[in-house]
Structures are given as structure tokens and as C-alpha cells.
Amino acid sequence: MREVMRWKHAALLALVVLAAGCSSNSKKELPPAELTDFKEEVVLQKQWDRSIGDGQGKTYNMLTPAVEGNTIYAADVNGIVMSLDRMNGDVQWKKDLELPVSGAVGVGYGLLMLGTLQGDVIALDASTGEEKWRARVNSEVLAPPANNGDVVVVQTQDDHLIGLDASTGNQRWIYDSTPGVLTLRGTGAPLVTNHLAIAGLSTGKVVALDTQNGVPVWESRVAVPQGRSELERIVDIDGGLLLSGGTLYVASYQGRMAALELESGRVLWQRDASSYAGVAQGFGNVYISMASGTVEGVDERSTTVLWSNDALARRQLSAPEVFSSYVAVGDFEGYLHLLSQVDGRFVGRTRIDSDGLRARPLVVGDMIYVFGNSGKLEALTIR
């Protein structure tokens, strides 16, 4: 087990090196691309901001806030959890779990759910912050648990999926999967429907389980490990899954992006891609933040690349998010960039947090929420 963990920490270092732009045949790392001036067409205006403890902390955490109704929830690495009015940022409740939170936050059906480095899963009452239950799983939880009102599904760092009773936290089932020899640090959050629990694995596969018993319903391979070294064979699905209608969109590192049929896992289309951040969908297109720092817009019907913007090369981009007529993406210096959905040109930019933006932006209506690495949570609109 210790050997596996050493491999995983080495993979985290590899991610940093690769994101900085080191190629396989180059002895010198290329620096992150310098930002260039452009004609600003859109102005982002801050509506409010709040500090959420120490934010992501010093390790490579991906603590993403969650929105339900008029409330936004966020947690920091040390266990501070806050419920805020999403319209004005007013604090509704605050709780200190005094635990190293690593998977945060999932919300739904009256529960706010978090995971920890020690393998704790904690469920709080979403309206009051009162602890409802906690459960222990077999490994660290690096992504928010998901809930369909009956079952809470947790994905651990070692590619196990666990179904917990949503009322009590008692374990109902567990799905075992052998992770890749070398993986990136992180997992995408599972998705849960009324009858399916879907997750992307470090082996480049997507699996769908029956939520009642954890039995596999289908399995689909998105990426095939290739290369001579274990580093070259990393194909993690870490950017999470995106469900739109009956279609599931997914991207892997050093593999492919693909569209899958939700009920069967059948591959509708796929194309080569490498991403550890994830995808967004809108206007009939799929948008992807590549590991190289390139942002692409792909027609979801023909899989044709409509545009590609490489001006953010090696800037360690967050997952993209569709905001109005634009694509929003954050970078390691804390800039939030807006790109046109039509042709990918820059239309707006603002700096949120000098410590960087790693978490995916959240969009609800005409407001975008951005959680900086230092713990600054900011809500913005387009002026």
C-alpha cells in the first residue's frame, strides 16, 4: 500500500511538470504563457465575496462549492464549512469540523456531504449544519459524495465506490476496482440518478452501477493506456462527468474525450484529448480545458473542432464552465478568463485570487461563483 501511495505522490509531481509544458523530447521546461492584451468586450462585476478559511490549503485539493436553490455551500481544507445566501453572500450558518477535508462539497435531498483524508464521510443537515451521521470508508475521499435521496455514493482515491444509506450512513454495498499503477492525485465526483451510480476510474473506464446493490450495469472504456513507461500510461478520468439529457460527457488524461449514452454506456463519439480538468457543454458544443492549457470548442454532433485557443498554454487551467454566451476558465495565477463560445477569442478577464483558481467555476442564472485557492469565494455578474 505504501508503494502505491509513493507512486501516487510521484504522479502529482508529474502533473505539475506536465502542466508546466515539459515535452517528452525537450530538456528545458517551457514557462507558462504570458497573458496578452485584447479588446475587452465584457466586464465582470463583483457582487460580493467571502473568505472560506484556508481554501484549498497547501496540497493539491479540488474543493468545489455547491449550489442548491438560493444557497451556496463551501468548505476549506481544515474543515470549516459555510452556508451562504448566494445572492448577497450573507452567512446562514458556519461549522468547524476540525478535520482535514479533501472531498467537498456535495448537496442534495437535505444533506450536505463531505469527505476527508482519513476516509470519513460526513453528512450535515443542509439547512442548519447539524451533523446527521458520519461513516468510515476504506481510503481518502478526494471528491464530493453524490446523493439521490436514497443512497449516498462515495468514490475513494483507490477507485472503490461505496453506497451508503442516505438516512443512516450504513454501508449498503461496495464496488472494488483495481486502480492504475501510477495515477494523478484526485478523482472525479460520481454522478447518481434514480437507479444508476456512474463514475470515471483511473484506468480510463467509466462504470455504471445499480444504486440498490452496486452491481455493474455497464462499463465503457474511454482511454487505453499507451506507452513504454507507467508515466506515459496514465489515463485517469479526474475531471468529473457531465450529464446533459441522456448523454454523458467525459474526458481522460492522455486519452480521449467522449460522449456516452447514459443508459447503455454506448460510445456515441470520441476523439483524442488529454485533460485532468474536465468539460462543459452548451450551444450544441462541448468545451474542454486540455492538460496543455489549450481550450477547445467541439461540435457535439460532428466532433469537429470549431475553435482552439492556445494562448493559455501551461497555465494549469480549471475546468471550463458555460456562462451566458461565453466559456469561463480559471488559471494558476488566479485570473478568470471569458472566451467567446462562437470562436474562442478572449472577451473578458479579471483576477480573483493571486493564489490561483483550481476549482471549476459555478454558474447559476446570471451569476458566476469562483472559489480561489486561498479561500476567497466571489460572485460576479456581467456588466
Automatic annotation (TrEMBL):
UniProt main location, coarse: membrane
Subcellular localization: Cell outer membrane
InterPro entries attached to this UniProt entry: BamB, PQQ_b-propeller_rpt, PQQ_rpt_dom, Quinoprotein_ADH-like_sf, WD40/YVTN_repeat-like_dom_sf
UniProt keywords, alphabetically: Cell outer membrane, Lipoprotein, Membrane, Palmitate, Signal
Transmembrane region(s): none
A GO cellular-component term linked to this record: cell outer membrane
Domain Pyrrolo-quinoline quinone repeat: 78-309
Keyword Lipoprotein among UniProt keywords: yes
Signal peptide: 1-19
GO annotation, biological process: Gram-negative-bacterium-type cell outer membrane assembly; protein insertion into membrane
Pfam families: PQQ_2 (PF13360)
Protein's UniProt keywords contain DNA-binding: no
PROSITE patterns (alphabetical): PROKAR_LIPOPROTEIN
Membrane-topology descriptor: Lipid-anchor
Family indicated by similarity: Belongs to the BamB family.
Function: Part of the outer membrane protein assembly complex, which is involved in assembly and insertion of beta-barrel proteins into the outer membrane.
UniProt cross-references to HAMAP family, sorted A to Z: OM_assembly_BamB (MF_00923)
Assembly and binders: Part of the Bam complex.
Protein name: Outer membrane protein assembly factor BamB
Source organism (scientific name): Pseudomonas helleri
Gene name of the record: bamB
